[in-house]
Amino acid sequence: MPYTASDEIKFHKWKDVIARHKKLKRFVIIACLITAFGWLLLFYKMSQTSEAVLRYSTEAQESVGTWTMWLLAMSVGSVALVVISKSAKKRGEELAENLKADLRNHLNEAGEGHRSKIESQLRELGA
Predict the structure, then answer these.
(1) From CA 61, how far away is CA 67, in angstroms rounded?
(2) φ and ψ at residue 2, rounded to 5 degrees
(3) The whole model's pTM is what?
(4) How far is 71 from 99, CA to CA, in rounded Å?
(5) What is the CA radius of gyration of the chain?
(6) How far apart are CA 87 and CA 83, in angstroms?
(7) What are 57-92's pLDDT values in tens digits?
(8) Cα separation of 115 and 28, whole Å?
(9) Using H for helix, E for strand and C for coil, what is the string for the chain?
(10) Per-residue pLDDT for 40 more than 70?
């Protein structure tokens, strides 16, 4: 079976999946850092506030409650983004494995024109 345009399309699809995963991973790191700094800021804010104010001031209690709810929502969102990023990485790895097997099969039957292209793609896939 010769190297076809559909193989080229599969390779470009794999490259797109990897590029999207890299962008998503960057976004996940930023979201996790913002969430972590938010938690640190809340704990710092609480440590700088007197115990009496935290105990008797309804305004302070509402502020801490609001901060906590927002940070919990951000934490859940960050965890969801991590899970989505891991599944995108897994999808990219599965596509790469399937593509490696196909390209290796095509490499045996390829002519000189396609042979160098297939070898280059296999190197990009890490094979």
Answers:
(1) 10
(2) -75, 165
(3) 0.76
(4) 42
(5) 25
(6) 6
(7) 889 899 999 999 999 999 999 999 999 999 999 988
(8) 38
(9) CCCCHHHHHHHHHHHHHHHHHHHHHHHHHHHHHHHHHHHHHHHHHHHHCCHHHHHHCHHHHHHHHHHHHHHHHHHHHHHHHHHHHHHHHHHHHHHHHHHHHHHHHHHHHCCHHHHHHHHHHHHHHCC
(10) yes
- Looking at residues 48-65, what average pLDDT do you find? 89
Tokens of 62: 């509402």
The stretch 42-60 carries a mean pLDDT of: 89
- Between 110 and 18, the more confident residue is 18
Measure CA 81 to chain center: 7
